[in-house]
Please model this.
Amino acid sequence: MVSQLAGTLTTQKMDTEFFRRAFYEPAQTPVPVKFGTSGHRGTLGEGFCALHAKAIAQAVARIHLENHITGPILVGGDTRLMSQETAKLCAEVLAGNGLPVILPDMPVPTPVFSFEIRSGRACACLNGTASHNPPQEMGLKYNPSHGGPADGKLTAQIEKYANEYMASPAAIKSMPLDEARTKGLVKTADVLTPYVEALGKKIDFKKIASSSYKFAIHPLGGTSLPFYRAIKEKYGLNNVDIVSDVQDPTFYFIPLDHDGKIRMDPSSQYPMKPLIELVQNGSYHFAGASDPDADRFGCATAKGGLIAPNHALCVMADYLVRHHRVAQAKAIGRTLGTTALLDRIAQANGLELDEVNVGFKYFVEGLDKGRYVLAGEESAGMSVSGWTTEKDGIFAVCLLMEIQACEGDVATLYQALTEKYGVSHYTRVDIPTNAETKQKVKAMKASDFTCSHVAGETVTRVRDTDGIKVYLENSWFLVRPSGTENILKIYAETFTDENHLQALIAEAQKIVA
Model:
């Protein structure tokens, strides 16, 4: 069944030679290093080039040396055009500063970086990825000793140092990779086997293997391919097919997204169209996918088609709670823009609910201390305490397969939750804007919002920690600027009806205006 989807091609194909040259020789002065929710990202060339990689690596080396941080740094990346070159450059700079490096000989998923750090085999990592974003983009993320995304204080320090080196490249130290290997500063390691073996202690693969359901998995051309292969072989999953083994840095085989761009987004109906068709035509009961760096998940089922991330998070949280799968956990965590149905599930089960700003870094402490049954975000990221402090799309897909194998179609399970807790009407709208408007929204305070009633409901409170979120009796809406693009994101949810949802969006747009 491998590669049966390879014929789903787009008409656009990235000019790899152009972007390869731009990476090493940008036509314009590269932009400064700027970390978003977890890393620096930009278009190959001006937005992200070889100098960015070396400057960030030198900044990390300086921080490790200044703070006497010992242990090897795990360096790698996903399957993008310049990911492996970025990893090589970072390894050479770290070695040039006398720091030990683990450089695997294969692309590495984001959750595996976290897993290796949590397992004590690495003290930190540099991860070359731009997640699910278009193939001409590239990025670099740093995770410290807790294994999760670095916090704002640390990324600000990396930014400061890196931009000093962007301005003075001669100060960057480097050692040729062959020399670094000879001196023992750069070594390889098996990062696949430990992760796959540990996953077997978290997921009931026997239930999946014995199920009458047929499962499809699509790695979307990413790092998860060899991991899914190993999982399938090790746990005897004969009813699981990997339906595409295509890996190409242009990602030409991914259907175009809503705006005509290629995005390897497992939560979007456009890139997921081939998988949706597989469950709708009866070939499979469940189809799962993870993005190129495998930190996000997506799935479609025979009864529900594409499952919204919010719906999947609720089904996973409910399942984990009922089956007591996360020992001693006291809470469910969600980001500001994620469904409040999770709040109702938490309350019904005597759990606390942590609402954090957008960014998985805000879950790290709770995951590290065993607080969360599940920590999730509406953009299809999740993990659990006792596992990784990064989002893990491989874990999520395997857990969803287990749930379907044990309890039936994920869509039916979500419907049962809405019958118990209420029907959620939810949307997110992205509005193009400019830097000035983004800054104004970012600077808004709760006290600036003076309305006592919105869309027929009483305002119960307003939060201004990440944009403006307005809480109402039976609904909420959030307006926040994107950290990496010139757009404003409007999130809204109501447990009333679709008309009320549209009224909330209209009110939110008044804030934008």
Q: What stands out?
A: Residues 194-421 form a domain with the Alpha-D-Glucose-1,6-Bisphosphate; Chain A, domain 3 fold (CATH 3.40.120.10).
